[in-house]
Amino acid sequence: MQIQIEHNDKTYTANLNHGIDLSIPLVNDPNQVNCFWAPLFEISPVRTEQFTGSIEEGGLVNFKNVRINPHGNGTHTECIGHISKEVYNINQVLKTFHFPAQLVTVIPQKLENGDRVIGMQPLKIALEGMESCPALIIRSTPNEISKKKQVYSGTNPCYFSKEAMEYLVKLDIQHLLVDIPSLDREEDGGKLEAHNTFWNYWKDISQARTNCTVTELIYVEDSVKDGMYLLNIQIASFEMDASPSKPVIYPLN
């Protein structure tokens, strides 16, 4: 199915039959992506004396419980409620679901202390000459397939510098998608500079960018080219700060 969209006084087409899923599947297996020491994602059948919710175990139907921590168990989309004392829920913040988006590949910088950081200069280079869009998808290198099963807890994963986030805010990026567990350093003493900068939230909600979202722990195959796409962010209707999500992109022509 072909659609046509208008953006920045230009007309683009997309084939909705050719979507590219950027989410990491949640699997009921110890070999799953995990971060911040969250309990593992788990699926288990409901069990009573008279009933077992598993056909495999002799039940009549599959009727199962799910345990999930959206921030620690795979691809998720979060809102300002993740860091604000005020209550914001992703189901209320994200009310439109399609956005023109740029996909760029960025090489993190290695600091003297061994940290890997996405800085402002690599972002400037990656975005040079690209059409402005409200959404930005960042694929970081190296881009091993192991990202889909990586246990990040205690590994000090790649993160963003405050200056890089200030640059993205200046570009008015409203929906940021990244293939790392968090915008901020795993242990930063509670500063959360990248998160606070992105949402412009420094304990004053009146100036905050409350309509913006961050999607973390995506995975973009190497075969997907940098460029412009139509982005669809799909979430569950969770009334909390974050939800498991399924971002899907469609090449724009």
Key terms:
globular; 253 residues; 3-stranded mixed beta sheet; 7-stranded mixed beta barrel; mainly beta
Q: Helix and strand layout, with pairings?
A:
Blueprint: E1 2-7, E2 10-15, E3 20-21, E4 42-45, E5 64-67, E6 76-78, H1 90-93, E7 98-106, E8 109-110, E9 116-118, H2 120-127, E10 135-140, E11 159-160, H3 162-170, E12 175-178, H4 193-199, E13 213-216, E14 227-235, E15 242-251
Parallel strand pairs: 7-10, 9-11, 10-12, 12-13
Antiparallel strand pairs: 1-2, 3-15, 4-5, 6-13, 6-15, 7-14, 8-9, 14-15
Helix pairs in contact: 2-3, 3-4
General description of the model:
The structure is a single chain. The protein is mainly beta and 253 residues long. Helices cover 11% and strands 29% of the residues. It has 4 helices and 15 strands. It has helices spanning 90-93, 120-127, 162-170, 193-199, and strands at 2-7, 10-15, 20-21, 42-45, 64-67, 76-78, 98-106, 109-110, 116-118, 135-140, 159-160, 175-178, 213-216, 227-235, 242-251. Helix 2 (120-127) packs parallel to helix 3 and helix 3 packs parallel to helix 4.
